[in-house]
Amino acid sequence: MSSTGPVVRYAEQMHRLIGGEHHIASPLGAWLLLALVGPAAAGGTRAELEEVLGADADRAAATARALLDTPHPLVASASALWERAAIEALAQWRAALPESTETGPLPDQPALDAWARERTLGMIEKFPLTVGPETLLVMATALATRVAWATPFQVSPADALGPASAWASELRQVLRTPWHGHTCWIAGTARAGDVAVHAAEARPERVDGRESGLLVVSVAATPDVPAPDVLAAAHEVATNATTFPGRGRRSLYDLPLGETPLWTIREEHTRSFGREELFSALLPCWKAESRHDLTAKGLGFDTAVRALGELMGAPDLAYEATQAAVARYGRYGFEAAAVTALAAVAGLPPEAVVRAAELRFGHPYAVVAVATDTRDGVPAGPWHGLPVYSAWVARPEELPAADLSDRPDLP
C-alpha cells in the first residue's frame, strides 16, 4: 500500500487544526504512531481509527512497519513503546510492532530527553511529554533530516521580492535560484488556483546503484487564499513533482504579461529555436520551532488511546498527545525533525504495604554459565542449556581502579 494518499489526507486535517500561524509539523510522524496502534483496535474504535488513517488498520500498520524497518537514507526514523510495567493484555499487539521499535520499561525524563536528542540529530532537546507516577505507557515516533542542497542558492537583495512584499523592507538579503540545479514553474491547482513553485533537490545518497534523494518544494498562492488550501495545493504539487512531473504546469505563453504578487512575466528578445520558457525564484531563509497539541478531535489520538485502553480493559484512560517539530531552510541546505508522543495516564495506585529485598553475596557462592540457543523462543540446538563454565567464588577481589570511572565507549 502506498502511504502517500492517506498521509496527504491526514496532513490536511492536521494543518487545518493547527491554523495559519508560522509553524512546522510532521503529519507523517503522527500518522505513523496512529498506524502502529491500529491493529490494537477492534469494533467501532477500529472503524473510527481507520477513518482517521484513511486506510485499513492492518494495511496501515504494515506500511508503517515497512517505513520504520527500512528507513530512507536521508530521513532518520525511530519508534518506541515504553511501559511502566509490562502489560500482559498488550503482549500480542506489542509483539507485532516493527522490529526496529524500541520497547521496554518506561525511562525517566532525562532518558526520554536523551532519546529525543539522539533520534533527531540533536535538533530537539526535550521529549515533548513529561512523565509522572501515573503514566502507564508512552509511545513515540521520531523523524529527522539534515541535507545539503545539490546546488546551493545565490544571494540577492531583499527588495527584489517586490514592492508588494512586506518582507522586502524587513529583510536585507534573500535566496535566489542559481542558473541551474533548481526547478521553478507555475502550476494550476484545484484548491489554490495558479501558484508559484520552487523545488530544490538535496544532495542524493547513492549506494549499490540506488539513488535516494529529497525534494523540498515551496508553493506560494495569492495572499487571499487560506493557509489550509495553500498547504493542500502544496501537497498536490509536491506529489506530482515526484510522480507526474508535468501535471498541472502552466505555460508562460498562456498567462498574461506583467506584475502580480506572485511573479513578473515579461518578454525578452534573444536567439532561440522555439518558445523557450525561463524561470528564476526568490525565497527567504526561514526557520520554525513548533509544539502541537494532538488531542483535538479529528487527529485520532483519542481513538488510539481508547483502542489500547479497551485492550487492557480500561477504556476510559486519560491521555496526552503532543508533537515537537523544528526546521531550518537556508542557502546551503535544509534540516527538520519531529518527535510525536502519546502517553496513556491512569490514576495513581492506592497506597499499600509492599516488601522489597536486597540480596547480598557476602560469603562463598557458586556461579554457573549456561549456553542458550533458541529460535522463536524454542530450543534449537545441542548447546541450549549446556553448562559451559562453573565456579565457586571464595576469594573476592577489589574493584579495579580502571573501573571506578564511567566508560563512555561502553553501552
TrEMBL record:
Gene3D superfamilies xrefs: Antithrombin, subunit I, domain 2 (3.30.497.10)
What SUPFAM superfamilies has UniProt attached to this entry? Serpins
InterPro entries listed in its UniProt record = Serpin_sf, Serpin_sf_1
Name of the protein in its database record: Uncharacterized protein
The organism's lineage? Bacteria, Bacillati, Actinomycetota, Actinomycetes, Micromonosporales
